[in-house]
Amino acid sequence: MVRRGEIIAIGSELLLGGRVDSNSLFLMEGLARAGVELRFKSIVGDDEDDIVAALATAVRRVEVVLLTGGLGPTSDDRTREAVAKAVGKPLRRRAEAVLGMRRQLTMWGRKPTAAQLRQGLIPVGAEVLANPVGSAPGFALRWKGALIAALPGVPREAEEMFSAALLPRLLAESMASGAEQLERRILYTFGLPESEVDQKLAGIIPSGGPIQLGLLASPLGVLVSLTVWGKSPRQVMASTRKQGNAEHLDKTIRAIKTRLASWIYAEGSDTMEQVVGRYLADRGLTLAVAESCTGGLIGHRLTQVSGSSAYLDRVAVTYSNRAKSEWLGVPARLLKRHGAVSPQVAAAMARGIRSKSRVSIGLSVTGIAGPGGGTKDKPVGLVYIGVAAASSTKRSGGFTQRFQFHGNRETIKLRASQAALNLLRQWLVKTGA
Amino acid sequence: MVRRGEIIAIGSELLLGGRVDSNSLFLMEGLARAGVELRFKSIVGDDEDDIVAALATAVRRVEVVLLTGGLGPTSDDRTREAVAKAVGKPLRRRAEAVLGMRRQLTMWGRKPTAAQLRQGLIPVGAEVLANPVGSAPGFALRWKGALIAALPGVPREAEEMFSAALLPRLLAESMASGAEQLERRILYTFGLPESEVDQKLAGIIPSGGPIQLGLLASPLGVLVSLTVWGKSPRQVMASTRKQGNAEHLDKTIRAIKTRLASWIYAEGSDTMEQVVGRYLADRGLTLAVAESCTGGLIGHRLTQVSGSSAYLDRVAVTYSNRAKSEWLGVPARLLKRHGAVSPQVAAAMARGIRSKSRVSIGLSVTGIAGPGGGTKDKPVGLVYIGVAAASSTKRSGGFTQRFQFHGNRETIKLRASQAALNLLRQWLVKTGA
């Protein structure tokens, strides 16, 4: 039996959109480990009746409901009141909730305000969930056969509370009931449109079988996800079906890797910048980057990785031609003859940043991010990427590659940064030790 | 009367999270213009029964339902089938749907594949909505008193279809029924925690009045939103209540601006980088940036603005001390005596990037993004920001400011980039012409 789950995110501002939903992936994976498949996600404003309605809908269709948000001290935090109203229990100030809050605030050298004391109100009969990293306590209760847990909206607080207080209980329940567990593998590809990935994978997953294939296109490439439900560890002791599914999954992953080959740049939760960083660190190589149209995005991405200072020496965002000449030594006549967006200038930028910084590898990007600045010969989205390496490496000298991207300024920058890091990755693989 | 709306986003991968929901804001604003208040947002996988369940829930609680996604050619696109099943009408291939698709594909020099012809299947009785920028047609129908519209999942296609085919109909309906319209104003603040913004605004909005206040904290600051419902233009001709609400809103905004003063950095849909860019462009000033711990993020953000090449000359991401010395002329003894993360080095970086680039203003950031690298004296999150200006400007020389940020590496980088741009903005305001 697979239990079904729903996340209800509470907050009028969440309806505005424009934000990354950074809670769901973590909670979804956690639920899956405990044999709960996330089936629905709902977003609802700070309206008490709307929260009650969402909760009533959820318990009709799932067995585990996670509420996030609306537990703060301000008057538009309505989750406590809404749950109490839905389940028909009054709110009472609970000593252990207030105690946990005081302890956390004391660590920060503060005392709870009158408003914060509201956070200690918990529906009668609910279990208090401690917040190890914030002031708002959560709570959990059973209603109409479903487990309902209220977690904070701040992703880090929701994650810590979920892991510490909720996951152990869910795991115990799933062990006891013999629930199945989800296994998911994710591969990331870059360089092929979604329809071509789909074609290349045609027939690889038998329809009606236990494996579900999902594709998701974004400017960073096409994500390939494989999902399979297997028996829980306890059941595995008495059967081999789980091994069967896992083996089947492994075999399918190997087949996909053969078909998609070097288009695959990462697996699991790895990012392109982590993969590239690992190659550089493992081989003791150093990198410097000369960016133009990406404006610093490649530097930003590389430095998202902790420890990147070991291989990243510097990044030059040479937006002006003068900067390209002064810092990278790109000859003025090259800029004049071929223009800043040209294979010649991309090559000179990569060579220039490498020799000026005295690093192993120079990477360069020059292009037109738009929406202005395009011409018939050099349209918006035209990008040249250059790689230059010391002559001591296997493939000496350097090379450039031309790309034509589509989309708005933001998308073109994102695609160009991904293409540059991917070109570097492919080159590192090809010339690998 | 305010009609209520719900968006149902369809796609198993959307449950994964980790993506920016870029459809909602546009659709929410469009609905509001037509007197429809977005009250719920639901996300559901590619499971036909789950889509049917979500649709059944939606028509019980709202009058306008927008479905996005699941209209593509692949077998996991189930929206057409689910809607047909829910409303109890069969699917039929519709000539106008296929025609529109052929026309779009012809423009791209392609013919519809067998799979794409599935996209021409529309529930009997539904109106076909043309897709001006993609191949998948949408459709709209009435069921149980609600208007249900199926739009593509690609944001640009959803927006174009909504604007061209759906909005005129919603506007006409709202004019006819005299529905109210939503007005929303948004202010962005930086530098105050949410609880302090809340305190500063205490009593400014009478409870029970027509104006709703919302606060949303993020690493970029605290967003303040004010929402009010007013009468439609047609009703306004016969009453003054709408003017009353709008005037009231203007007055409240002015009061908020007085209380939050220079913490407010932008209004409406402006970003910090747009505001800073406008100041620089208006005064004909040029900028160069020297980043360390932010790794290129400030450059990336500044260059998200189209036309930024007019004022941004270059950005140096000097991750290594050697780069700081070579490119910015930071004396080695300064680095040795005070360390790279110090007010002295921040000042030298700002002066250095300004004089090397010969621009009006130099901006610098140096700090510890973590998780490693912190000490007792210089903990993770410690950041110094420097501003250096030509002596010809009113406030000559330069200055530095110390910040202590909290959060993970990504959050610290984001906050540091925002603090740097905000410091520059405040300095530009103070020294303004």
Using brief descriptors, characterize the structure shown.
homodimer; 433 residues; alpha/beta; five-stranded mixed β-sheet; 15 helices; 17 strands
Rg for CA atoms of chain A: 26 Å
Number of H- or I-type helical stretches of chain A: 15
Helix content of chain A: 40-55%
* Oligomer class: homodimer
Q: What is the SS-derived class of chain A?
A: alpha/beta
Distance between the termini of chain A: 48 Å
Got a strand count of chain A?
17
β-strand amount of chain A: 15-25%
Low-confidence blocks of residues of chain A = 232-240
Q: How are the secondary structure elements laid out?
A:
Two copies of one chain form a homodimer.
Chain A: E1 3-10, H1 24-33, E2 36-44, H2 48-61, E3 64-68, H3 79-87, E4 91-93, H4 95-107, H5 114-117, E5 121-123, E6 127-129, E7 138-143, E8 146-151, H6 155-177, E9 181-189, H7 194-200, E10 212-218, E11 221-230, H8 233-236, H9 241-260, E12 264-267, H10 272-283, E13 287-291, H11 297-302, E14 312-318, H12 321-328, H13 332-338, H14 343-357, E15 361-367, E16 382-389, E17 397-404, H15 409-430
Parallel strand pairs in A: 1-2, 1-3, 3-8, 13-14, 13-15
Antiparallel strand pairs in A: 4-5, 6-7, 7-8, 9-11, 9-12, 10-11, 15-16, 16-17
Helix pairs in contact in A: 1-6, 2-3, 10-15
Description:
The structure is a homodimer of 433-residue chains. With 433 residues, chain A is an alpha/beta fold. Chain A is 40% helix and 25% strand. Chain A contains 15 helices and 17 strands. A six-stranded mixed sheet of chain A has the order 2-1-3-8-7-6, with helices on both faces. In chain A, helix 1 links the parallel strand 1 and strand 2. In chain A, helix 1 packs parallel to helix 6 and helix 2 crosses helix 3. The longest helix of chain A has 23 residues. Chain A is globular. The two termini of chain A are 48 Å apart. At the A-B interface, helix 1, strand 2, helix 2, strand 10 and helix 11 of A face helix 1, strand 2, helix 2, helix 7 and strand 10 of B.
